[in-house]
Input
Amino acid sequence: MAGIYIHVPFCKTRCHYCDFFKSTNLAFRKQYLEKLLEEIRERSDFFEKNNTPVQTIYFGGGTPSLLKVEWIEKILESIQTNFRVIDNVEITLEANPDDLNFEYLKAIKNIGINRLSIGVQSFFDEDLKRMGRRHNALQSRSALEWAFKAGFQNVGIDLIYGLPWSDSNLFLSNLDVLQEYPIVHLSAYHLTIEPNTQFGKLKLQKKLFEIEDSKSEKLFWNLHDKVEQLGFEHYEISNFCKEDYFSRHNSSYWNNEPYLGVGPGSHSYDGNHRYWIKPDLHQYVTKGYSEGLSCESLTTTDRFNEYLMLGLRTQKGIDIKRMMENFEEFWINIQPKVQKWLDSDFLECEDGYIRGTRKGWFVIDGVIKDLFLVD
Ligand code: SF4
Output
């Protein structure tokens, strides 16, 4: 199975914490669409070698909800024409609450969008204002109501935790909304202060700091416990879902399946190579994708490290049998280190899988780094 990711690199304004590639110049949207359709046509043989059917389509950004309904429809039609798409394909659209209204939601549902990921971030206006978000809490609630009224069943929200000015009880009260609406998916990301952002500048001026690690860890497990009590499964370090409502698209990344990314700043993977398109909107709309396309061949070490990293971030962990089949020598090579983490209770081994324990999962990135191999 395979996935297609469409990068929509537009935002009305920049949020204070965000370093994703995007442009606030919305005037290029029409030209972007034309070049995007061209790219989809020209890369239609991306999966042809193994004739892999497309099972997920994901509009991410940026702000995909800034696209008109007819544009989204054109993109979907082009994908259907140029790729082998399965019947019950998962089609996700990331959306900002302030872009949504009942008519828009109904219209995108009618053209095939069947999964919504709404960038709520917080249900407190003070948080939203300080993060530079364009919407308020009331707009998030309205967006949720309209989404369910329009007939969406697969609706998820994004939240940010670890805000320096907030406290844990306030953040955790955001989760009450999971009892008020039939939300089936939650992505919760810890705030990181990136250098090239408004928050990065404030950090340099010593006006804003990340919260202490001990507080972050406590918050992570409070979040985990509360969301699990509400019937969600914590299936990846930042993701929770109700039964069977995991993101099929993101799970295919974690399962090492191929995907094609289109649009400036997007990445693709065919099992052996990684491709990326330069995050340059002007170049993309004037010269097309091929000018900015780069490719690198992945070594076995790269693929091993990738599988290790993605697997250990999931609740399921890494499949030892699969490791032995694909990377026997590498896997044997890191056994002393794996044993060290098992002995110190950061990792556990169960049913043929190795995964992070309660002590280890929050700091899993450090464990992964230790296990990485270098060529
Ligand atoms: S809307 Fe999303 S992509 Fe755009 S600036 Fe804000 S966080 Fe970044």
About this structure: The two ends are 30 Å apart (CA to CA).
